[in-house]
Design a protein that fits this description.
The protein is of the alpha/beta class. It has 5 helices and 5 strands; from the N terminus they run ββααβαβααβ. The protein has a 5-stranded mixed beta sheet. Helix 3 runs parallel beside helix 5.
Length: 155
């Protein structure tokens, strides 16, 4: 798999944006080259700069928007890079702006992160059916000393 980064709440950035600047014929040619090598081309969403839950974004509407973008630009799926995690013991809350892997703490603290992610993923899968599209989730960071259950969603 090859990932274009990033499709954010506010739109496409970096390689995902560059993909939108290609013509349909150019995208088709690139996709054909990847397919010939057995490589799926996907977009990575959210990342360390997006906090979709704490920002009040509706999970169903967000999934619908992302699915429509994937279809419009003829990609093979989505890698959900929902970065919320448990702080390692060596990092304190005052340092969280300096780390990229622990972003949406308000959602975690409020207990809304997991349900948001489950609703989002369920809707995304309904719009991007299995067998036609791939959906993956980047692993959420958990401190080695954390004894609770890491945030997960399986589809």
């Amino acid at each position: 798999r090859s990932l274009l980064s990033f499709l954010l709440i506010e739109g496409a950035w970096d390689k995902a944006y560059e993909w939108t600047t290609l013509t349909a014929a150019q995208r088709s040619a690139v996709k054909s080259q990847y397919a010939a090598e057995g490589i799926k081309l996907m977009v990575s969403v959210f990342g360390s700069t997006d906090v979709p839950t704490s920002s009040g974004n509706d999970p169903v509407a967000t999934a619908n928007t992302i699915a429509a973008w994937v279809k419009q630009y003829s990609l093979d799926g989505v890698d959900v890079d929902y970065e919320v995690g448990i702080l390692p013991d060596s990092i304190t809350r005052r340092d969280e702006s300096d780390i990229g892997f622990c972003q949406d703490f308000n959602a975690m603290d409020a207990g809304t992160a997991e349900n948001w992610l489950i609703s989002f993923t369920t809707q995304l899968r309904s719009q991007l059916p299995s067998g036609s599209y791939i959906i993956t989730h980047a692993r959420t960071y958990t401190s080695p000393s954390y004894t609770g259950t890491p945030l997960t969603a399986t589809m």
